[in-house]
Design a protein that fits this description.
Number of strands: 0
Distance between the termini: 26 Å
Helix content: over 70%
Radius of gyration: 22 Å
Oligomer: single chain
Strand content: under 5%
Structural class: mainly alpha
Order of helices and strands: HHHHHHHHHHHHHHHHHHH
């Protein structure tokens, strides 16, 4: 049992390290693009409109892909090293995806005949390459090539940086340049995966199987993935619809400012996503272990400690250098950073519970939850944005995530009984209290004192087993 505990812990830590290299490397490149965009795109309204287009693309990606990437990942893990089974899975997934992409192109052609929409074709191009990249990336993970998956993410982000400099700075294409940078960078990443893994030539092109077998497998994959489509769409309603409320009630200018703050906040979500990817693999494999309640609870509590410390260090550190990173006309976004950080923290906690439903193959259970919570989100936005402006959407997102998180902690008890350690709960309280000095203090010294005191307190109250695990991995 002790050896098993060490092995699965070491594997989880190794997976975190692999995904951290890819995600942090890619997000750092994206992070440094924000100052570039704010400096060279002087029209805040145009940047706000681009953010709306990007939100629409994010909405349609799960509808076009049918979350086949998640389905492929899950079923490829079940296939193991059986190449024939892999070919069947990928043949089914690829043909279904191509059908959905063709339908999307035809739908946009019809819509463009009746309405003239700015950036519609660039948005369609981005939708197609994002859909392809999303599915192929998940397939790469399912085939066990995590390093290629990570490298493709870095390459994609590096490509966005290089192409952005070329199109936005050199050619001065403005927002259109950002679109082209994102499209070409993802195409390069897809080509890289094909060269290294050969998803198309090794598995899809040679994956011809009997029609009956394909239809039966397609039914099984869609039974797993379609509930995730609904869940993802409703996540969009919660996470992205706020831009439309801001644009309507407050104005595109404020939407541009808000979107800048949100881009910095996504770094926090990236840490959560790193954990999510590593934890997804470990959770699937350990779900049937006899001590899963204890194991899942240990991971959850350790996750809380790490995320609270990251939240404090990142937001206060960013506050100290914000005036150097963002052009003057976008400086107003600073005041939204910490509240959005709290929202991002709750969001990543909710995502922890998503994996448990996936482990239990009961993704359908999340559908009614997301319908109810999305309705709550929309109603609160209608009420609060007119009254509080940008803060209305932030309060709404925090309330939405908190309600959903509390409900799920009770609901998932049918699968796993999670226990939050008292010290982890105290850490969450420290994170919430941090909003006061962040918003009220203007002294760098006071901010430094608060952060050091908070991190020191968290370390003091943290159980010894977590200290030993964390610092042994850091070789401290």
């Amino acid at each position: 049992m002790a050896d098993t505990e060490i092995n699965r812990r070491d594997k989880f830590v190794k997976d975190v390290g692999i995904y951290a290299i890819g995600n942090l490397g890619s997000k750092l490149i994206t992070f440094f693009m924000v100052p570039l965009y704010t400096y060279f795109i002087s029209d805040i309204r145009d940047f706000g409109y681009y953010d709306l287009c990007l939100s629409v693309v994010f909405f349609f990606v799960p509808l076009v892909t049918l979350q086949l990437g998640d389905g492929a990942f899950r079923f490829l893990l079940r296939a193991g090293d059986d190449n024939e089974r892999r070919k069947i899975v990928l043949s089914v997934v690829s043909r279904t995806l191509m059908t959905m992409l063709a339908f999307s192109v035809m739908a946009v052609m019809v819509v463009s005949m009746f309405w003239e929409i700015k950036y519609v074709w660039l948005s369609l191009g981005l939708l197609c390459v994002m859909s392809l990249h999303d599915v192929i990336s998940q397939v790469t993970r399912g085939l066990g090539d995590s390093k290629v998956y990570v490298a493709s993410g870095i390459l994609s982000s590096f490509g966005i940086g290089v192409f952005s400099i070329l199109f936005v700075v050199v050619f001065k294409w403005g927002v259109a340049g950002i679109f082209w940078a994102n499209i070409l960078a993802r195409l390069v990443a897809i080509l890289f995966i094909e060269i290294r893994v050969g998803v198309i030539r090794k598995y899809i092109m040679s994956g011809a199987v009997a029609s009956y077998g394909k239809m039966r497998l397609l039914r099984d994959i869609l039974k797993y993935s379609l509930p995730l489509v609904y869940t993802t769409v409703y996540w969009w309603l919660i996470n992205c619809s706020d831009r439309f409320f801001i644009a309507h009630y407050v104005g595109l200018e404020y939407n541009g400012i808000y979107s800048v703050a949100l881009r910095f906040t996504t770094i926090l979500q990236t840490f959560g996503f790193i954990f999510y990817q590593a934890w997804q693999d470990s959770a699937f494999r350990q779900y049937n272990s006899p001590d899963r309640n204890a194991f899942f609870s240990k991971v959850l509590n350790g996750y809380i400690f790490v995320m609270v410390v990251i939240l404090l260090l990142y937001t206060f550190g960013l506050k100290a250098v914000y005036s150097w990173l963002v052009d003057e006309q976008y400086q107003g976004s600073l005041e939204y950073l910490y509240p959005l950080g709290i929202s991002a923290f709750l969001y990543t906690m909710v995502y922890f519970t998503n994996i448990i439903y996936q482990c239990a193959l009961d993704t359908r259970r999340t559908m009614l939850q997301m319908v109810a919570i999305s309705c709550m989100n929309i109603i609160l936005n209608f009420v609060l944005v007119k009254w509080l402006g940008v803060y209305g959407v932030i309060v709404t997102s925090i309330a939405t995530y908190l309600v959903l998180l509390l409900y799920r902690f009770f609901d998932i008890r049918r699968y796993v009984r999670l226990k939050v350690h008292v010290s982890a709960a105290v850490s969450i309280v420290i994170a919430v209290v941090g909003i006061v000095p962040f918003c009220c203090d203007r002294s760098l010294l006071q901010d430094v004192v608060f952060v050091l005191a908070s991190v020191g307190l968290i370390y003091f109250i943290m159980p010894k087993e977590y200290k030993d695990k964390f610092f042994s991995k850091l070789h401290l």
